[in-house]
Each structure stands twice: as C-alpha cells, then as structure tokens.
Specification:
Layout (H helix, E strand, L loop, with lengths): L1 H8 L3 H21 L9 H21 L1 H13 L4 H4 L5 H26 L1 H11 L14 H18 L3 H19 L6 H7 L6 H7 L17 H5 L27 H6 L11
Helix pairs in contact: 1-9, 2-9, 3-8, 4-8, 6-7, 6-8, 6-9
C-alpha cells in the first residue's frame, strides 16, 4: 500500500492524462458491445460537447492545482486534519478513511449543494441535460461547476488532512468510477445490485439522471454508495423506466450545442419542451 501511495505522490501529468483517456477509451469500447440502452444517435457527434467540457475541466483543474498542492503540503507540515489527529491506524484503514471522507466532502457534498441552491443547480443542469448518458458524460461540467467541485475538494483535503499522494489516488479513483457509473453498459442486475452496496454502480447512478423529481435529487455519490444510504438520499428505479435529460430544458438540439451549454446558467427554465 505504501508503494501505491508513493506512486501517486509522484505521478506525472502525462500519467494522469493517460488515466483519463484510457478510461474513456475502455468504457467507450465496452458500452459499444454491451449497451444498457441502444441510443439512436451518432456517438462521435454526441461526444463533441462532452469532450469539450472535459477539456475545460482539465484547464480549470490545472489552473487551480497550486491550491491543492499548497493545502496538502500545509496540512502535512502542520499536522492538521482528521488523519493527522488519529495516529496508529493500519495504513489500509488510513487510506480508506481518506478516500471515504474526500468522497464525502469533495464529491457528495458539492453535488448535493448544487441540487439545493437554485443558481448552482442552473450550473449543474448542464451535466443533467445530456439525453444520451454515456461514459463521456462523466465530465460534462460547466466550467463554473468545475471550479465549485475543485474548491470543495480543497476543503476536503484541508479537513481530512490528506497528503498529496492520497489526494491524487482519490482523484484517480474518482475519475475512473465516474466514467464507470456514467458508462452506457449493461451489467447483470444482480451484479449491479451487489456492487451498489459498496460503490456507486451504473444502474444506481442512472437513476440520478432520470429527467423528473424526486429521482433527480437522489444518488449523489461518486465513489462510495454509503453516503447516499446514510443520509437517505438513495433511491431505486428500474433502468427500463429511466428517461435522461431535465424536464425544464428538454430541447435535445440545444443541449448538444456548446454555446448553449455555456450560457445555460443565465437562461430561464423552459418547462416540458419536447
């Protein structure tokens, strides 16, 4: 385990980029072979706005990376944060606690907040307005959302007291799990259900992308499903009943245009367009 932490402590930007591209390529290939839904769409054309927003997410993260590095160094040097206040734990437990609480503060919490605060929801609905959810949807985030999520991650590092090795390990797992649970892949229902007791499985997260309430306001987790179960935000809906999109912005053509997506936080809602 220490070797793993050391690896991520020294991971290069190129290696992190390989994880991103490799994950998209891997899950893209699988969902082509065993799709959950057989979308009537042009897969490459659909991916263009999603990959553009993935690129803006990368730019935001690289631009603000100094905050993450500074915070991780500061908590380590000053012995601050949860992990630094509980000594003597086996390394595997130490790492698990770090991943659990970074996932809570850096993923679950900002996701929940964006669904509850009106202006933040208008930013986040760019992600929800994809009518053909697949692995490229994972980082379909408005640049404002990328900033919000990054700042919550910094807060998580500060409160948890995570070293930079743990931070990069968390971010890598978070990336792959997000690509996995957004991927349009059909797992055996029994396997998906078993997985959902530990991690956020594809079918569990797809419920969150159903176009109407209350399902849209459920299943906020990214890596671990425990937070949804603990805070009673977990819901189940059979995948055959799921319809993707947002009922207040249901214009499929507009939701594929990059300029429309970037302007979306400043628009008024349009109810039940079809």
């Amino acid at each position: 385990m220490s070797e793993l932490i050391n690896f991520f402590e020294n991971i290069s930007s190129f290696q992190r980029s390989l994880l991103l591209v490799g994950g998209i390529t891997f899950f893209w290939s699988i969902e082509t072979v065993i799709p959950l839904f057989r979308f009537n769409y042009k897969k490459f054309k659909h991916a263009i706005p999603n990959l553009f927003l993935t690129l803006t997410t990368i730019i935001v993260n690289f631009s603000l990376a100094f905050l993450l590095l500074f915070t991780a160094d500061w908590v380590t040097e000053n012995n601050f944060g949860l992990l630094n206040w509980i000594d003597g734990l086996p390394l595997i437990i130490h790492v698990l606690i770090a991943l659990l609480f970074l996932d809570l503060i850096g993923a679950y919490l900002p996701h929940l907040v964006q669904h509850k605060v009106k202006f933040l929801w208008k930013i986040h609905l760019v992600h929800h307005s994809d009518h053909n959810v697949d692995t490229t949807t994972a980082n379909r985030h408005h640049p404002f959302e990328s900033v919000i999520r990054f700042l919550f991650t910094v807060l998580g590092v500060f409160l948890v007291g995570a070293s930079i090795g743990l931070v990069f390990l968390y971010q890598s797992i978070s990336l792959i799990l997000s690509q996995f649970n957004h991927a349009n892949i059909k797992l055996p229902k029994s396997l998906d259900r078993i997985l959902s007791y530990v991690i956020v499985s594809p079918n569990m997260h797809k419920v969150h992308h159903h176009y109407v309430m209350p399902y849209t306001d459920s299943n906020y987790g990214n890596i671990f499903s425990v937070w949804d179960r603990l805070f009673r935000t977990h819901m189940h809906l059979d995948s055959s009943k799921i319809i993707y999109g947002v009922d207040t912005f249901f214009d499929k053509k507009e939701n594929e245009k990059i300029n429309s997506l970037l302007y979306r936080p400043f628009e008024e809602s349009k109810h039940n367009q079809s």
